[in-house]
Amino acid sequence: MAEGVDVLFINPGDRKQIYQDLSEEFPAIEPPVFAGLYATYVRQKGCCAAIYDAPALGVSAQQAAEAATRDYSAKLIVIVCYGLQPSASTQNMTAAGDIARMISDAGTSAKIMMLGTHPSALPERTMRDEAIDFLCDLEGPVTIFKTLKAIKGGEEDFSDIPSLWWRDGDRVVRPTSAEPILTDLDNEMPGIAWDLLPMDKYRAHNWHSFDHIHDRSPYAAIHTSLGCPYKCNFCCINSPFGKSSYRMWSPESVIKEIDYLVENYGVKNLKFVDEMFVLNKNHVMGICDLLKSRDYEVNIWAYARVDSVQDEFLDNLKAAGVNWLCLGIESASDHVRDGADKIYGNDDIKDVVHRIQGAGIYIIGNYIFGLPDDSVERMQGTLDLALELSCEFANFYSAMAYPGSPLYDQAMAQNIPLPDMWKDFSQHGYNAKPLANQFCSAAEILEFRDNAFDTYFSHQPYLDMVRDKFGQDVVDHLNRMAAIPLRRKLLEDSNAA
User: Fold this and answer.
1) Number of domains in the chain
2) Which of 50, 107, 134, 232 is 20 to 30 A from residue 406's alpha carbon, by CA?
3) How far apart are CA 114 and CA 306, in angstroms?
4) Range of the domain at 129
5) Cα–Cα distance measured from residue 290 to residue 312, given in angstroms and rounded to the nearest whole number
6) Do residues 286 and 235 touch, judged by C-beta distance below 8 A?
7) Which residues pair with 302 in a beta bridge?
8) Can you spell out the DSSP letters for 339-398?
9) Contact between 263 and 285 (Cβ < 8 Å)
10) C-alpha to C-alpha distances, 322 to 140, 311, 314, 348, nearest whole angstrom
11) 3-state DSSP percent of the chain in helix, strand and coil, to 5
């Protein structure tokens, strides 16, 4: 018998589709933090919620749709479209659309809503393309609850609901007002509904567990803040928030959630999902002080910027269990980096990397090839910088024009070819198509990215450093990762021509 719930949240995604043959061992399997937050919000309003996490369960879109209609008798199904990192919403839209269509085809009485970074960036197109009844173009919790309340009350006119796109017959109706942004996060959305999630399915990123490579679970990810005050041209993080913004949970609320995760699930590996954790001094130091007062052996990673890392943070971060910081280095070229709202030089980058490592904290360096004004020579400079810095791990990306980012608007205005399907916005996908620029074709950028990955993870000084810090098991793990080829249709077609 189906479980009767008011709202079913679905986390869409297909790890094989996104990561190809890397999907089994190497990527993280992360909890759907926004679905968990929204479930908490509606529960506080007296509603019954459930979450179905398709990527964690390793199911297909069809299996997810069948479960949604067979196992849950929901009044409202909300497909929450986010990703493992802030720009990864779009790549999950193919799976999200498939799930919505299959649920609709099943003839369920439940209404279907989408929200997330991609739907908020392209609301009208998403309404026209996908088999959904509703779309929220901002953050979501207030709109979800008001929509659910209207459905339960038998309403057929949803015009008064803020940020809600809906169908009136064949007509798509736009919202007439914006959803109020939650400001009292501690009381209105106090943490994730962990009891609704398959907590035994989640695992940390491989590099996050280099100190214990065979012990990547249990794992959890939480927000300590929402939004980002910066405006990088390649980033779409603020699309669901309507503008650049930054709101925080109190340190006391954050530690309460960590207490719960440690005490109830034995969580050791923990991610702070915030686009920018190392930013507000009182927030960072307050959380660190509370963590230091606990006797936890947590292993935390978080995002920082080169220009946000202050010396007074570092010892406190390390003492609190923050063992990894992710730095968006992006490019070795000041000219290229200028468009990423990052005004500092390579000497500043080297200095910050050395200071972080000097405090005993490991670094994930993020690099992007093919941003506007990037060339083969400048991309080579970025790879040379990555090899010189020798961060404990590196992520190499191709520039993508994600919906919701300024790059997407520029690409549309200039008729620059974009990926064929939403899933092809995946950095690791077979049909990935980076954003071409005036100096490089999409194929040249993708080929450089893939070669840079191979170069970095076969670089003997890097492997020697990893062996010294983490042991031979981690080197063996990296060698297995580097030995798995990514098939690329763009490169196959280019070589065939």
Assistant:
1) 2
2) 134
3) 35
4) 3-173
5) 16
6) no
7) 325
8) TTT----HHHHHHHHHHHHHTT-EEEEEEEE--TT--HHHHHHHHHHHHHH--SEEEEEE
9) no
10) 30, 14, 9, 22
11) 45, 15, 40
Both structure tokens of 53 = 């996490």
Q: Where are the alpha helices (DSSP H) in 229-326?
A: 251-265, 281-292, 311-320
Is the domain of 248 the same as that of 120? no
Residue 369 and residue 397 in contact, taking contact as beta carbons nearer than 8 Å: yes
| Residue reference for tokens 């005004």 | 343
Q: Which residue has the higher pLDDT, 291 or 17?
A: 291
Rounded (5°) CA angle 85-91-96: 110
CB-CB contact of 374 with 440 (8 Å): yes
Provide the residue type at 200 as one letter: D
φ, ψ of residue 143 in degrees (nearest 5): -65, -40
**CATH number for the domain harbouring residue 279:** 3.80.30.20
| Predicted model pTM | 0.95
**In contact, 74 and 10? CB cutoff 8 Å:** no
Q: Per residue in 96-153, pLDDT tens? A: 999 999 999 998 889 999 999 999 999 999 999 999 999 999 999 999 999 999 999 9
- Burial of residue 96 (CB within 10 Å: 0-12, 13-18, 19+) is buried
Half-sphere CA count of 181, side-chain side, radius 13 A: 15
Specify whether 129 is located in the same domain as 258.
Answer: no
